[in-house]
Amino acid sequence: MEFADGFPIWDRLTSDQQNRLHNSVVSRTVSKGTVLHNGSADCTGLFLVKSGQLRAYILSEEGREITIYRLFDRDMCLLSASCIMRSIQFEIVIGAEKDTELWVIPSGVYKEIMEESAPAANFINEIMASRFSEVMWLLEQILWRSMDRRVASFLLEEASIENGSCLHMTHEALASHLGTHREVVTRMLRYFQGEGMVKLSRGVIEIIDEEKLKALQS
Q1: For a disulfide at 44, which of 37, 72, 101, 188, Cβ 3.0-4.6 Å?
Q2: Average pLDDT in the 84-101 region?
């Protein structure tokens, strides 16, 4: 897939704007576990995922992580280019959850085009609204949903992403996604196992009874 095919509003830009993007965009291939952007880094640029999977998360002062959102094929990350959005006041880390191919659009180039082009500005606003909705959903989960429901929802979501019932994930990784302690997740998973919903082995969580998990999360 070429950049022009993956960029949603390519056909709504002028030839000059298309040329500037095409000449400035950088293609990158990163391995699973690579940190692409951290809160203390310079304004990296906008990420457009060609294939793979990225994770955006924040860190507490104690070093605990919580996932804000995840990015898949053709998704764009704006918070790696926070310098073009002056209202962003928090630090975010973006890492590769899988081997990933992506394009990096320099922040300065896109900022210039955004100032010239209503479609480019509207596209950014739409993504920001979508990300805001995801953050509000996460806040609702943390404030109002019990941990057993959050764990059940995450397991079902992960199974859908991986298209299978065997999840190759440690308890520590699951805790990082949910912003809690590993011991809390381990205790919950052992309860799930006792109820026949999952089967646990080293580095693997296998969903045994999907219907019970669905009933728990509702």
Answers
A1: 37
A2: 80
